[in-house]
Specification:
Order of helices and strands: HHHHHHHHHHHEHHEEHEEE
Strand order of the largest sheet: 1-2-3
Shape: globular
Helix content: 55-70%
Strand content: 5-15%
Structural class: mainly alpha
Number of strands: 6
């Protein structure tokens, strides 16, 4: 029976892949238990399981489609709308779980703007409920399982730069970052602590950027910046160092995939917290050993064993992978766009192009397309500088970039933002670096279709 097959696929394959190497009660336990009693969740689970099965057999990681999945997706939405209209307070946990599943469904079929809408809707419901009730109840599913998932999703949304329609979930944590233990008792504890730190860091940086933007606007046009989140009084470097010390003191298997993923992000964060980006983009050049270390950790993570991998109609480098946990795409994109060593950034680009991953609202093919364009722009600028300087061609038929030092500051991209549109299209806006009193940041925008 198709219905049972899709449910079993979700239970045996989708839930495991979404959680990845990290423990995640939401996917493996809570949703499955709720599905047995709630028709809206069973429809949503069946829809996602059916779509994921199609995705597992797709050879281009974008061909996931299933009329059967769309049928149950539509049924789930109708049931949730009925619950929402009847008594949201009574059914809030159901609506929130559905928002997470719906966002995963839309992400899997490449409709990232719709996925963002579901994530934003869930965060809004949590915030409004938190205001009305004076705080989510400790020990509840919403507090212990759902909130951490939305915080994790919002971290991804911020990393991709899609914050325009998002409300901050940071207030839901309602705590200052707890003191770090001497060592973590489990990888899950280390993962949760890292997520809390990331959330605090991203919101602090966003708050600083809002204040900077507001102060630079003409009088009368300034917007009042949002109040500083309550748990951003910590020193980020000290807090990060405390996390690193606890992580190093923990007795974790060094080759465990979850440990390697945390090492990848740790390496990226150590660079982000060490540089002063106001000094220009060449500030990243001395960090080549760290970029290589990041890629070394990423390369050790085993490729996912997708359910349809052995029966794919066309060979692929890596089976398609879909996850909702801390992953590799942001660090790989970071390396492509901040490391100017041509060999290292191309290694990161190859990994991004060949990994066939979807991580929340982040897509490896979209990231690779944007990264490849940035590399092209920067190296074209470097070659033009070499030509204009009278440097003799250093390759067959012309000039090639051989070192980071050959990419001058004014050829580098200082900022890049991807805006997701409806369906599989969007735009990338990038700002070139520069210096001097006459320099003015002017962005350029290009359309992306994947």
């Amino acid at each position: 029976m198709r219905r049972q097959r899709s449910f079993d696929f979700f239970r045996l394959r989708t839930a495991i892949e979404l959680a990845g190497p990290f423990e995640a009660d939401l996917w493996s336990t809570v949703l499955l238990q709720t599905a047995h009693a709630e028709p809206a969740i069973i429809n949503a689970v069946i829809a996602l399981g059916a779509l994921h099965e199609s995705f597992g057999y797709a050879h281009d990681a974008h061909a996931a489609t299933s009329e059967y999945a769309l049928l149950h997706y539509g049924k789930a939405i109708q049931r949730i709308l009925t619950l929402h209209d009847s008594n949201l307070t009574l059914h809030m946990d159901i609506v929130l779980m559905a928002s997470i599943i719906f966002s995963a469904f839309e992400s899997l079929r490449g409709h990232y703007k719709s996925a963002l809408t579901h994530i934003s809707s869930g965060i809004n419901i949590l915030i409004e409920t938190d205001k009305r009730s004076g705080g989510l109840r400790t020990g509840s599913i919403d507090k212990d399982v759902v909130v951490p998932m939305f915080v994790r999703l919002e971290n991804q949304v911020i990393e991709v730069g899609q914050t325009a329609s998002m409300k901050s979930s940071i207030s839901l944590l309602k705590r200052t970052p707890p003191s770090m233990p001497h060592a973590f008792k489990s990888v899950k504890e280390a993962h949760d602590a890292f997520d809390d730190f990331l959330s605090s860091l991203w919101h602090m940086l966003e708050h600083i950027e809002q204040e900077s933007t507001s102060s630079s606007e003409p009088p009368g046009q300034q917007q009042r910046p949002s109040p500083a989140p309550p748990n951003l009084t910590m020193n980020p470097i000290e807090h990060f160092n405390s996390w690193c010390a606890a992580f190093d003191a923990s007795n974790f298997p060094p080759m465990h995939p979850a440990v390697l993923i945390l090492q990848v992000h740790r390496t990226m964060l150590s660079m982000l917290l060490s540089v002063n980006v106001a000094l220009g983009e060449t500030i990243w050049d001395p960090y080549l050993p760290q970029f290589r270390k990041l890629l070394d950790y990423a390369d050790k993570i085993p490729a996912p064993k997708s359910p349809g991998a052995r029966k794919l109609p066309h060979p692929v480098v890596t089976a398609p992978c879909f996850s909702y946990h801390l992953g590799l795409l942001t660090p790989l994109y970071f390396t492509c766009t901040r490391c100017r060593d041509p060999n290292t950034r191309r290694q990161a680009l190859r990994m991004l192009e060949n990994c066939y991953r979807k991580e929340g609202v982040w897509d490896s093919q979209l990231g690779a397309m944007a990264a490849k364009r940035i590399i092209q722009i920067e190296e074209m600028g470097a070659i033009e500088t070499m030509r204009a300087s009278g440097i003799q061609p250093n390759g067959e038929g012309g000039w090639i970039v051989q070192t980071a030092e050959q990419v001058p500051e004014n050829a580098r991209i200082r900022e890049s933002d991807i805006t997701l549109g409806t369906g599989r299209e969007g735009t990338i806006r990038y700002i070139r670096s520069g210096s001097g009193p006459s320099w003015k940041a002017e962005g350029e925008t290009e359309r992306l279709v994947w």
